[in-house]
Design goal:
The complex is a heterodimer of chains A (135) and B (392). Chain A is of the alpha+beta class. Chain A has two helices and six strands. Classes of the chains: A alpha+beta (135), B mainly alpha (392). At the A-B interface, helix 1 and strand 2 of A face helix 6, helix 8, helix 9, helix 11 and helix 14 of B.
Chain lengths: 135, 392
């Protein structure tokens, strides 16, 4: 019973095996990809392991506090930002091995030519609740 | 309405339905429906025979669902007259439910969810909230668990104890104890008090099976639950055992835990939960941290290491050796263990600080914080590193 975040990157991850930009795929290949992601989430709901899944717009705004009584400063987006998150899925699984297995399946989503993308996904454990019994 | 009383009736009600021939999954759903009706209707009009009322309503729900089901399937060959309840004793039925819900065919998370719902009577929504997952996910986890049992032909009658004393066979009490231990030890602190629920379920189990390890686990839970108020500071920060305000410990729970443990130990069938409880009892016996009997605690860790190969036990033993024989001895014990073990750096940091090597300790505390598996520990370890780094 541990939660993991599967992070999908627009930018910042190592190059996938099937490295073709999405705008170079056929419309059918894009549909097949979307269907795979949808089916994957639906399957995790059925196994009782799905917690959340969201996609993010590629462009956002940087915001920071600018002192008492002043509106926040906004800036960006910065083209040089190395890491760009495309979306995530949160799973609740029995073991780290299971989390790796599921990330592997998600990474097999089809891309150009209907072949798996072999995309690198980042797997990050949640910091859990502390156990009661420690000694 | 006393919810705890209501929920204590559930295993018995469920057992009656199963005995009358309902399959476990359908019976469990029917009992949940009856509970919803009880929670809604009882405050205004409470029945005198609560269990009888629940059985009647649950059975009606079961028949309604079966009729709807058979109508859907256009099957009309189901007989739905009410059979007479059989003579099986209630205690045995309750025990079978525990075995069923902890069946080794289930994954730990499924066994936990099914136990909380079918034996504990929590709703799917409450269990989902307790484990911070969507209700739909928890509902699927529970129905999948029930399907797993049904597909393998596992019913309460077949989950009977058959191999007490060996591990991970159907009907082994050790599988039930592991599930209850998980409920107690690994939950978030939301609206549902999982620790209290685990104690209630373990207490109920102890009334239907006479086993020293069941008593040992109950004692262990009570002794740790007794420290609950002292375990966190008002700001939510973790307070380690040595720094806890012991006047906040629940002396009633400690007394009960110690009594249960002593009766279990007297039977001379030691197991890992009794040994863990014995360690907790020795901590509870010390009015101040400095008065802790570490020599005896080391002896119990040696017993425990003989019963389980858990790395947590070996790490904790090193801490205890450090207290009993000095930090150098603790570091020597630690040196025999794999440095990749979880919390190894945290233990090493503590022992180095006690040994006076503050630079190494600060570095190891920071390293331990980086590897901490939860927020409370990470914050605690970060503060330890900061305290040493700033000389305070």
């Amino acid at each position: 019973m541990a939660k993991y975040l599967l992070l999908k990157h627009y930018r910042g991850a190592p190059a996938p095996v099937n490295d073709v930009c999405m705008d170079q795929w056929t419309p059918e290949e894009i549909s097949a990809h979307m269907q795979y992601m949808h089916d994957f989430a639906a399957r995790l709901e059925k196994t009782g392991e799905f917690v959340d899944g969201q996609a993010l717009a590629p462009e956002g705004t940087w915001v920071r506090y600018d002192g008492e009584g002043r509106p926040p400063v906004t800036d960006g987006p910065f083209a040089e930002t190395k890491d760009l998150i495309a979306g995530w899925m949160v799973i609740d699984v029995d073991s780290h091995e299971r989390a790796v297995e599921l990330a592997g399946e998600l990474s097999a989503a089809p891309g150009a030519g209907g072949k798996p993308i072999h995309e690198w996904l980042e797997l990050r454990p949640f910091l859990a609740a502390p156990p009661t019994i420690t000694e | 309405m006393d919810e705890a009383l209501l929920r204590s009736l559930i295993p018995g009600v469920l057992a009656v339905l199963v005995r009358r021939g309902a399959d476990f999954a359908a019976a469990e759903d029917a009992v949940q429906d009856a509970l919803v009706e009880a929670v809604r209707g009882w405050p205004a009009d409470r029945p005198r025979d609560a269990k009888g009322w629940l059985v009647t309503v649950a059975w009606r729900k079961f028949l309604d669902a079966r009729r709807a089901d058979s109508a859907r399937r256009r099957r009309e060959d189901l007989v739905d007259q009410e059979p007479a309840p059989g003579p099986a004793p209630a205690a045995d039925d309750t025990l079978q439910l525990y075995f069923l819900c902890a069946h080794p065919a289930l994954t730990p998370s499924s066994a936990v969810a099914l136990t909380l719902r079918a034996v504990g009577g929590l709703t799917t929504r409450q269990i989902a909230q307790a484990y911070l997952v969507p209700e739909a996910t928890m509902a699927q986890r529970i129905s999948r668990a029930k399907r797993t049992l049904a597909d393998k032909g596992i019913s309460p009658a077949r989950a009977k104890p058959e191999a007490r004393g060996s591990f991970d066979r159907p009907g082994d009490v050790a599988t039930v104890l592991r599930v209850l231990y998980l409920v107690f030890n690994e939950g978030y602190s939301g609206d549902i008090d999982l620790a209290a629920e685990a104690i209630r379920l373990t207490r109920q189990l102890a009334t239907v099976i006479d086993h020293p390890e069941v008593a040992g686990l109950l004692a262990l839970m009570l002794l740790h639950h007794a420290r609950r108020a002292a375990r966190t500071a008002p700001d939510g920060a973790l307070v380690p055992l040595a720094d806890q305000d012991r006047t906040q410990w629940d002396t009633g729970a400690i007394a009960e835990g110690v009594e249960i443990l002593q009766a279990a130990l007297a039977r001379d069938r030691l197991g890992e939960f009794q040994a863990q409880a014995a360690i907790a009892a020795l901590h509870a016996d010390a009015p101040r941290a400095e008065e802790t009997d570490w020599v005896q605690i080391v002896e119990w860790y040696d017993e425990l290491a003989g019963l389980t190969d858990s790395p947590v036990v070996r790490l904790n033993r090193a801490v205890a050796v450090g207290e009993a024989d000095g930090p150098r001895a603790g570091l020597a014990a630690l040196a025999e263990l794999d440095a990749g073990l979880p919390r190894h750096a945290a233990v090493a940091a503590y022992l180095h600080e006690r040994d006076g090597d503050l630079t190494t300790a600060a570095r190891l505390y920071a390293e331990a914080a980086h590897k901490a598996p939860n927020l409370a520990e990470r914050d605690y370890l970060t503060r330890q590193a900061a305290r040493l780094n700033t000389g305070r």
